[in-house]
Write a structure and sequence with these properties.
Structural class of chain C: mainly alpha
Shape of chain B: globular
Helix content of chain B: 25-40%
Order of helices and strands of chain C: HHHHHHHHHH
Strand order of the largest sheet of chain B: 6-7-8-3-9-10
CATH superfamily of the largest domain in chain B: P-loop containing nucleotide triphosphate hydrolases
CATH class of the largest domain in chain B: Alpha Beta
Distance between the termini of chain C: 23 Å
Strand content of chain B: 15-25%
Largest interface: A-C, 56 and 43 residues
CATH architecture of the largest domain in chain B: 3-Layer(aba) Sandwich
CATH topology of chain C: MetI-like fold
CATH topology of the largest domain in chain B: Rossmann fold
Distance between the termini of chain B: 43 Å
Number of domains of chain B: 2
Helix content of chain C: over 70%
Number of helices of chain C: 10
CATH class of chain C: Mainly Alpha
Largest sheet of chain B: 6 strands, mixed
Shape of chain C: elongated
CATH architecture of chain C: Orthogonal Bundle
Oligomer: heterotrimer
Number of strands of chain C: 0
Number of strands of chain B: 20
Radius of gyration of chain C: 22 Å
Chain lengths: 318, 545, 272
C-alpha cells in the first residue's frame, strides 16, 4: 500500500497547491489587471474625491501583496468579506445559494450519470448498428446546442405548451423536498442533456477500449458467456476510466449550472455570480470564482485518485 | 478418415472488410481454400511471413475471427463435429474446453485486475472439468512442470509482477489446465529474447509431450517450428504452399518458396582482417541516461574502413546506447570516440558538418525513420542538397542513380513512404544514408522488423554496397544468424559491457565464455532435434526467466 | 481530387453560407439593424420573415447582423488563440527543459479554473468591449490549443525521422517547419473547427448573460437575451439565434470530422 498512499497524498497536496495558485490567479485577475475597481463601481462621472475615498475604504492603497494575504487569511478563517453592493456578509449570502446549486447539480447528476452509462453500454452492445448510430447522432447534435437553447425549448414544451412544470424554478427555505424537486426538474433536465452527450460518448469510448483489449479476447476464447466476459474481465478494468469520465463531466456541470440558473431564474451560485459581475462587486466575484474553482479542482482530483486506486499495478507493486 | 483424427479443416475461406482511405469499404480474402488435418496428440506447425493468414487459420480452429474477420466458407470439424454449425453457444462449449489458446503477448493477454491463479483455473471450472480445488492443484503441478519458480505461490501474483518469459509459461499452463484436446500456440516465443525463447520453447515442447495434447503451432520462424512440430504447413498470402512432415520440409522441400525459406540467411561472406589504423575506435566509453545506472561500462571497440563490426546482445545489453554515444545523441561521461584519425566532440551540436556527413545511420523501423509527408525524392535528395549543395536536375539525376543502386527503379522517386513495402522503405533509408557518401553507417537492427526473405535481400544489398563504396558498417543486432552472415568482427555485449570481442572466426570459435555460449546455443538452427542438443549442452541459465 | 462525402459537403455549404451572410450583412439584410419597423413580437409575415423582436425590430435583419458580430468575434478569437497557442506549444515541445516546464505548468494552472468562470472574473473589472472580449476569449482558449499542439509536436519530435534530421545537422527552423509542422497540421486543422465552435458558443453565452456584446449591437446570444421573456407567452423569437448557433456548430463539426478522418487515414496508411 506504500506507493498508493504516497501517490494519493501527492495528489491531495497537488490539489491544495493548485487551489492556492488559483487564488493568486483570481486575485491578479480582479485586482492587478488594468481595470480600476473604484472607477468601475462609481462610473465615469465620479468625482476624484469620491474615487479616492472609495479606494481608501476598499484598502486599494495598500500594496497588492498585503491585500492578497489579508484576503487569503479571511478566506482561510471563513471570512469571505463584505459585498460592495448589498453590504452583507458574503459567506451568509452564499451559503443558501451554494446549497441550492449543489441540490440542482446533484439532481442532474443522479439522472445523468446512470443514464449516460446505460446509453454508453447500449451503444457498445449494439456497436455500429442502429441503436448505436441513433445515440451517436442525437448526442452529436446536443453537443452543438448552447445550454440556453435546450433550457428554453424545455420551457416552451413543458412549461408553456403543457404546463407540467413551472418555467421559473423558485425555491425558498421552507419548501418541502418534493416541491423543491418539482421546481428544479426542468433545469436539472437541461443540465442532464448538456452533459449527457459528452459523458455517454466518453463512456462508450472507455468501454470499447477495454473490450478491444487482448485479455477480453482471452476471456472469450475461454468460452465464457458474454455476461461473464463483461462482468469479470471488462468491468474491473472499466471502473477507473468511467469514474474519470463521470468526474470530468460533473466538473463541466459546474460551468453549465451558471447559464441554466440564469435561464430558470434559480437562486443559486451561478445566478449570484452573474449578477455581481454585472454590478462589478469584486469581493463577491472573487469568492464565487474561488468556490467554483475549488469544486472543479476537487472533482478532477477525485478522478485522479480513483484512477490510482483502481490501478492493479499500483495496488500490488512488484 | 482415420479414427484418430482430431481436427479436420476443409476448404476454409476467411474474409475481412477493409476500410482503405478514400475508397469504399470492401471485402478481401485472407484465407483461400485451405484444408488441413491434425491427429490426436500431434503438432502441426503453421508457417509463413506476415499476411500469410497463419494466425487467422489458427483462430478458426476456435471458430473465432479477430476484428472484422469472418469465416465465409468451409468446415472446421473438431472431434467429429463441425464447430461452425453450433452458433455462438456451441462455440462457447468448445472454447476453453476442447481447444485452448496461447497468445503471442501474454503480458497483454492476461487481465491486469486478477491474480494469475484465478485466470489459470477459470476455464476448467467454468466448463465443469474440475472443481476449484482440483483445478488449483492441477495448475500448481503444471507450473512446476513448466519450470516456473515457486510453483506453489506464483499463482498468487498479478500479471505485472511476473516477467515476460514466465508469463508465457503461465499462459501455457492456463491452456493445459482445462485438459483440452488441442492448443493453438500463436507465436508464443516471438516477443521473447533469444536466450529466454529457447527455455520457453523447451518447456512447451515437454508439456505437449507429457500431456499428449495436440497443437497448432503458429510462427514465422521455420527453425523454431522445426523443433516442436510433427508436420509443417507452409502458407503464403492465405494459400497453402506446401505440407509435409517436419523432416521433409526442412531437409527436402519441394516448392521453390519453401526452399527459399529454408535457405534463408545462408549468405556467404569472406571475412576481412582488421587494418592497423582503424576508421572508428571507441575508447573506454562509459555512458548513462541521467541517473547513476551506467548503461555502457568502459566499452572499447574498433572498426576498419570497408568492414563490418557486429554488436550483438539482447534487450538491455546497451548495444543501441553505444550507437547513440557514437552519433553524439548521448554524450559519454567517460572515454572518447576517434573517427578517421580525429577525436569527435562528444555532443552532436559540437560536431562539424563533415563529421555528421561521414557517419550515417539506418534505423530498425523504416516506417518512422522517414517523414510520411515527404516523397522519396525529397527524402534521398535532402542530404545531397544539405551536404553537397546539389539542386534541381543535378540533384534529381543523383537521386535516380541512388535508386538504381538500391535496386529500385526511378519510378519510385515521387512516391510517399506509405506507398512502399517494408523492404522498399528500408532500401530508401539505405539510399538516404548513401547519399551523404559516408565512411561509416550505423545499422540499428535494420532487418529485425522484416520478414526473413525480405531481410535477406537487404543484407545482400548491404554487402554489395560495401564492396562497391568501401563503407564500414557498425551493425547492431540481437540476431546471431545475421551476424554470421555479414560480420568481419564481433563484439558481444551483456549488461553494458563487451564480454567478448575480436575477429568473427575467433569470436565464434570455442572456448566460449558462459554468456556467449548461452547466446550462441540459443539461436534456433534449421535442424530437427537441435533444441534437445542445445538444452543439454548449456552451462548458464538465461537471465530473462 | 478526392470525393467529398455528402455530410461534409452539406457542412461545407452551410458554413460557407453563414460566412457569406456575415460578410455581406449590410447588402442582404432587408432592414437596418436597429430600426423599429413593426410591433412587439409580430408573427412571421411576408414583410418580416421571422417576425419582429421585443421592441419591434425586424428579427431576420437582427439575425443577419447578429451573425456578423458573432462570427467576427469568434473568428478573431480563434485566430488569436490558435496562433498564440500553437506557436507556444511547438516552441515548448522543441525547446523542452525549463521553458517547457514553465509554460506547461502555467497552462495547467489557467485550465484548472473553468473557462467561463475565469472569463466572468476578469470581465468583472474590465470594460466589456469587443476587443477585450476577443483578447480574453482568445487567451483563455489558447491554453487548449497549447496543450494539443505541444502534445502533437512532442509525439513527432521523438520520431526517428526527426532524429535523422538532427543527426544530419539540420537547424531548428528546418526541423520545426519541414519535419514537424507538415505532420502536425492535420490534427490542428481539425481542432481549428472545434475551437471555432467553442468560440461561437462562448461569446453567445457571455452575451446571453449580459456580459458580452452590448446592445444595441446585435449578436446571437444577445438576441436570445432580448427575446427570452417571450418564451413564457409561447413566442419563439429567442429560439432562432439558438437554431443558427446549433446549425453552424453542427456544420463546422461535420467539416472538421471529415478533415480529421482524411488525415488519420493518410497517417495510418502502412503500405504493403
Amino acid at each position: 500500500m506504500g506507493i498508493v498512499t504516497r501517490l494519493v497524498a501527492q495528489r491531495l497536496a497537488l490539489g491544495l497547491l493548485l487551489l492556492l495558485a488559483v487564488s493568486v490567479l483570481i486575485f491578479i485577475g480582479t485586482q492587478i489587471l488594468p481595470g480600476d475597481v473604484a472607477q468601475s463601481i462609481l462610473g465615469q462621472s465620479a468625482t476624484p474625491q469620491a474615487l479616492a475615498n472609495l479606494r481608501r475604504d476598499l484598502g486599494l492603497n495598500e500594496p497588492a501583496i498585503t491585500r492578497y494575504f489579508s484576503w487569503l487569511g479571511g478566506v482561510l478563517t471563513g471570512d469571505l468579506g463584505t459585498s460592495l453592493t448589498s453590504g452583507g456578509n458574503i459567506l451568509s449570502e452564499i451559503s443558501t445559494r451554494l446549497a441550492n446549486t449543489l441540490f440542482l447539480a446533484a439532481v442532474a447528476a443522479v439522472i445523468a450519470v446512470p443514464l449516460a452509462i446505460f446509453l454508453g453500454l447500449l451503444a457498445v452492445r449494439y456497436r455500429e448498428r442502429w441503436p448505436d448510430k441513433l445515440i451517436s447522432a442525437v448526442t452529436l447534435s446536443t453537443i452543438s446546442l448552447p445550454e440556453f437553447f435546450i433550457g428554453y425549448v424545455l420551457i416552451l414544451l413543458f412549461a408553456v405548451q403543457r404546463q407540467w412544470f413551472p418555467s421559473v424554478a423558485t425555491v425558498y427555505p421552507s419548501m418541502s423536498f418534493l416541491a423543491r424537486l418539482d421546481a428544479v426538474i426542468l433545469p436539472a433536465l437541461t443540465l442532464t442533456m448538456v452533459i449527457l452527450a459528452h459523458m455517454m460518448r466518453m463512456t462508450r469510448a472507455a468501454i470499447l477500449n477495454v473490450m478491444q483489449s487482448a485479455y477480453v479476447e482471452t476471456a472469450e476464447l475461454k468460452g465464457l458467456s458474454t455476461f461473464q466476459v463483461i462482468w469479470k474481465h471488462a468491468f474491473p478494468n472499466s471502473i477507473a476510466p468511467i469514474v474519470n469520465v463521470v468526474m470530468l463531466n460533473l466538473a463541466y456541470l459546474v460551468v453549465g449550472v451558471v447559464v441554466v440558473e440564469v435561464v430558470f431564474v434559480y437562486p443559486g451560485m451561478g445566478q449570484y455570480l452573474v449578477d455581481h459581475v454585472s454590478k462589478r462587486d469584486v469581493p463577491v466575484v472573487q469568492a464565487c470564482g474561488l468556490i467554483f474553482a475549488a469544486v472543479y479542482i476537487g472533482l478532477n482530483m477525485i478522478a485522479d485518485i480513483v484512477a490510482i486506486l483502481a490501478n492493479p499495478r499500483l495496488r500490488h507493486p512488484k | 478418415m482415420a479414427d484418430d483424427t482430431l481436427l479436420d479443416i476443409r476448404n476454409l475461406r476467411i474474409e475481412a472488410t477493409v476500410y482503405p482511405p478514400g475508397e469504399d469499404p470492401h471485402d478481401i480474402v485472407i484465407v483461400d481454400d485451405v484444408s488441413l488435418t491434425l491427429e490426436k496428440g500431434k503438432v502441426l506447425g503453421l508457417i509463413g511471413e506476415s499476411g500469410a493468414g497463419k494466425s487467422t487459420i489458427g483462430l478458426s480452429a476456435m471458430g473465432y475471427g479477430r476484428g472484422g474477420v469472418r469465416i465465409t466458407g468451409g468446415e472446421v470439424v473438431l472431434n467429429g463435429r463441425d464447430i461452425l454449425q453450433g452458433g455462438i453457444r456451441g462455440l462457447r462449449k468448445v472454447r476453453g474446453k476442447e481447444v485452448c489458446y496461447v497468445a503471442q503477448s501474454a503480458a497483454a493477454a492476461f487481465n491486469p485486475a486478477h491474480k494469475l491463479m484465478d485466470q489459470v483455473v477459470e476455464a476448467a471450472i467454468e466448463h465443469g472439468s474440475a472443481t476449484r480445488t482440483e483445478a488449483r492443484e492441477r495448475a500448481v503441478t503444471l507450473f512446476g512442470k513448466l519450470g516456473l519458480p515457486d510453483p506453489d505461490h506464483i499463482g498468487q501474483r498479478y500479471p505485472h509482477q511476473v516477467s515476460g518469459g514466465q508469463l508465457q509459461r503461465v499462459m501455457t499452463a492456463m491452456a493445459l489446465c482445462s485438459q483440452p484436446d488441442l492448443i493453438v500456440f500463436d507465436e508464443p516465443t516471438t516477443a521473447l529474447d533469444v536466450t529466454t525463447q529457447i527455455d520457453v520453447l523447451a518447456a512447451i515442447k515437454e508439456a505437449i509431450r507429457d500431456t499428449g495434447v495436440a497443437a497448432l503451432y503458429i510462427t514465422h520462424d521455420l527453425a523454431v517450428v522445426a523443433q516442436v512440430s510433427d508436420h509443417i504447413m507452409v502458407l503464403r498470402n492465405g494459400k497453402k504452399v506446401e505440407y509435409g512432415t517436419a523432416k521433409q520440409i526442412i531437409e527436402a522441400p519441394k516448392e521453390e518458396y519453401t526452399r527459399e525459406l529454408v535457405s534463408v540467411r545462408s549468405i556467404g561472406h569472406d571475412e576481412k582482417t582488421a587494418d592497423k589504423s582503424p576508421l572508428l575506435s571507441v575508447r573506454n566509453v562509459t555512458a548513462s541516461y541521467g541517473g547513476s545506472v551506467k548503461v555502457l561500462k568502459n566499452v572499447s571497440v574498433e572498426l576498419s574502413l570497408g568492414q563490418t563490426l557486429a554488436i550483438v546482445g539482447e534487450s538491455g545489453s546497451g548495444k543501441s546506447t553505444l550507437a547513440r554515444a557514437i552519433t553524439g545523441l548521448l554524450p559519454p561521461s567517460e572515454g572518447e570516440i576517434v573517427f578517421d584519425g580525429r577525436t569527435l566532440p562528444p555532443r552532436l551540436d559540437q560536431r562539424s558538418k563533415d563529421d555528421l556527413r561521414e557517419l550515417q545511420m539506418i534505423y530498425q523501423m523504416a516506417d518512422v525513420a522517414m517523414n510520411p509527408r515527404q516523397t522519396v525524392r525529397t527524402i534521398i535528395g535532402r542530404p545531397l542538397e544539405f551536404y553537397f549543395g546539389l539542386r534541381g536536375a543535378e540533384r534529381d539525376r543523383r537521386v535516380d542513380e541512388l535508386l538504381e543502386e538500391i535496386e529500385m527503379g526511378n519510378g519510385f522517386a515521387d512516391r510517399y513512404p506509405a506507398e512502399l513495402s517494408g523492404g522498399q522503405k528500408q532500401r530508401v533509408c539505405i539510399a538516404r544514408a548513401l547519399a551523404a557518401k559516408p565512411k561509416l553507417i550505423i545499422c540499428d537492427e535494420v532487418t529485425s522488423a522484416l520478414d526473413p526473405l525480405v531481410a535477406d535481400g537487404i543484407l545482400k544489398l548491404l554487402l554489395n554496397l560495401q564492396k562497391r563504396e568501401n563503407v564500414a558498417y557498425l551493425f547492431i543486432t540481437h540476431d546471431l544468424a545475421t551476424v554470421k552472415a555479414i560480420a568481419d568482427s564481433i563484439a558481444v555485449m551483456f549488461q553494458g559491457e563487451v564480454v567478448r570481442y575480436g575477429q568473427k572466426s575467433d569470436v565464434l570459435a570455442p572456448p566460449f565464455d558462459d554468456y556467449t555460449d548461452l547466446l550462441l546455443s540459443s539461436v534456433p538452427e534449421m535442424q530437427i532435434g537441435w533444441l534437445e542438443k542445445a538444452i543439454a549442452g548449456r552451462k548458464m541459465e538465461s537471465a530473462g526467466n | 481530387m478526392k470525393r467529398i462525402p455528402p455530410a461534409a459537403l452539406i457542412g461545407l455549404i452551410i458554413t460557407s453560407l453563414y460566412f457569406l451572410s456575415a460578410i455581406f450583412a449590410p447588402v442582404i439584410s432587408p432592414y437596418p439593424m436597429t430600426e423599429i419597423v413593426g410591433g412587439v413580437w409580430d408573427p412571421p409575415s411576408a414583410a418580416h420573415w421571422l417576425g419582429t423582436d421585443n421592441i419591434g425590430r425586424d428579427l431576420l435583419s437582427r439575425m443577419i447582423y447578429g451573425g456578423r458580430t458573432t462570427i467576427f468575434i469568434a473568428t478573431a478569437a480563434t485566430v488569436l488563440s490558435f496562433t498564440s497557442g500553437s506557436v507556444l506549444g511547438f516552441t515548448a515541445a522543441v525547446l523542452g527543459g525549463w521553458a517547457d516546464q514553465l509554460l506547461s505548468r502555467f497552462v495547467d494552472l489557467v485550465m484548472s479554473i473553468p473557462t467561463l468562470i475565469f472569463a466572468l472574473v476578469v470581465l468583472s473589472v474590465m470594460p466589456v468591449t469587443i476587443p477585450i472580449l476577443i483578447v480574453v476569449m482568445g487567451f483563455l482558449d489558447a491554453t487548449r490549443v497549447f496543450r494539443l499542439s505541444r502534445a502533437v509536436a512532442v509525439d513527432i519530435n521523438v520520431m526517428d525521422f526527426v532524429e535523422a534530421a538532427k543527426l544530419r545537422g539540420e537547424g531548428r527552423v528546418w526541423i520545426i517547419f519541414r519535419e514537424i509542422l507538415p505532420n502536425a497540421l492535420s490534427p490542428l486543422v481539425a481542432e481549428l473547427g472545434m475551437r471555432f465552435i467553442f468560440m461561437v458558443l462562448f461569446v453567445s453565452t457571455l452575451s446571453f448573460l449580459g456580459l458580452g456584446v452590448q446592445p444595441p449591437l446585435a449578436d446571437w446570444g444577445g438576441i436570445v437575451k432580448e427575446n427570452k421573456d417571450g418564451i413564457v407567452y409561447g413566442i419563439g423569437a429567442a429560439l432562432w439565434p439558438a437554431v443558427a448557433i446549433a446549425t453552424l456548430a453542427i456544420s463546422v463539426n461535420l467539416v472538421a470530422d471529415w478533415v480529421l478522418n482524411r488525415t488519420t487515414s493518410l497517417k495510418g496508411g502502412r503500405g504493403g
